């Protein structure tokens, strides 16, 4: 897009920071997006909803919002709903899809209802029979809060005796906690942009531990993009990812995480409707392989901003 066309976006608020457990990552993501838009000639301004009331967006004449808020209060439909009421077009998924995708439990129920593959699970509470959960799902088991991202409060449990402590940790972040069976295989992620799925990224973390620290603050994790998968298989997985986004009602951009077993069976893990845009983030990495540099990526995402 030309500089003049970029001015046609009007006054743009880049929403980042926020009050969720993922504030630190959001600040990094938002800073990168803000700088990219400004380099491209967009009249873009930083806006942190933790520090300023959202209604100021209307008062100050903002015409679009680029949402780079991660987690609750930004990725769960609440900010999207506020922007709808103010009539300000915004990037990413709408109210329903954002809320649904933020909820790992209900995402799984929708995927299963649509016949899409996802690991088996159980909802945990203080009355759970830990031995029965371990027997049902097998070991290891991932325990995580239903409404958090970036591996916040997540634990990989290798013994039934560890389940209660894992539930207690996750419960600090959320009243709903999910246990998910461990599926061995290649860890993959697939960003989508509009109607196309970008190249898959294979994630190779130390000891298979792709936690919060390894996601954002170390260089120990290896990312392979291109993924090295056969072209036909990659196309099949991209089609699966697009379908997984469509059944949730997602739009604009996002990223699905999945596991591919050694015998070629895919399992969808979760959907991210406002993925990271940091130096370690996977959407920009995949976009570069598709020939889309960071600034152009941000402009494409902004061009998809809409209401409803």
From TrEMBL:
This is D-alanine--D-alanine ligase. Mg(2+) 1 binds at residues 257, 270. One of its GO terms (molecular function) is metal ion binding. PROSITE patterns: ATP_GRASP, DALA_DALA_LIGASE_1, DALA_DALA_LIGASE_2. Keywords: ATP-binding, Cell shape, Cell wall biogenesis/degradation, Cytoplasm, Ligase, Magnesium, Manganese, Metal-binding, Nucleotide-binding, Peptidoglycan synthesis. HAMAP family: Dala_Dala_lig. NCBIfam families: D_ala_D_alaTIGR, PRK01372.1. Binds 2 magnesium or manganese ions per subunit. Residues 108-303 form the ATP-grasp domain. GO terms for biological process: cell wall organization; peptidoglycan biosynthetic process; regulation of cell shape. The gene is ddl. Its EC number is 6.3.2.4. Mg(2+) 2 binds at residues 270, 272. Its cofactor is Mn(2+); Mg(2+). Coiled coil: none annotated. It catalyses: 2 D-alanine + ATP = D-alanyl-D-alanine + ADP + phosphate + H(+). The active site is at 22, 150, 281. Pathway: Cell wall biogenesis; peptidoglycan biosynthesis. Pfam families: Dala_Dala_lig_C (PF07478), Dala_Dala_lig_N (PF01820). It is an enzyme of class 6 (ligase). Belongs to the D-alanine--D-alanine ligase family. Cell wall formation. It is found in: Cytoplasm. PANTHER family: D-ALANINE--D-ALANINE LIGASE, D-ALANINE--D-ALANINE LIGASE B. The keyword Cell wall biogenesis/degradation applies. It comes from Pseudothauera nasutitermitis.
